Amino acid sequence: AMGITLLQIVQMFVGIAVALAAQGWRMSASGCDSCGLGNVLGAAMYGSYLVLFARFFLDSYGSGGKGKME
Predict the structure, then answer these.
(1) What global pTM score does this model have?
(2) Which of 5, 31, 3, 36 is nearest to 20 (CA)?
């Protein structure tokens, strides 16, 4: 279970990176056919999930957590 949670945390970082990269490409000279608001809201969504998964991980597997490492 710990490995899956770690993969989900990595997935959130990748989602943030993709959304921010799309926004950067959109603003560059070459342009990208994406919605600026969608990019920002997507990054915010992935950021909120990142916080939730990180808190879950620390609560479950951190030094003071009740869960056990598997």
Answers:
(1) 0.79
(2) 36
Distance in angstroms (rounded) separating the CA atoms of residues 9 and 67: 18
pLDDT digits (tens, 9 = 90+) for 4-38: 999 999 999 999 999 998 888 888 867 677 788 88
Count the alpha carbons within 13 Å of 25 in the hemisphere toward its beta carbon: 11
| Residues 26, 37 contacting (CB under 8 angstroms) | no
Q: For residue 16, give the nearest of 53, 65, 55, 66 by alpha carbon.
A: 53
What are the distances in angstroms from CA 49 to CA 10, 16, 26, 28, 70?
Answer: 11, 10, 24, 28, 23
User: How many residues in the chain?
Assistant: 70
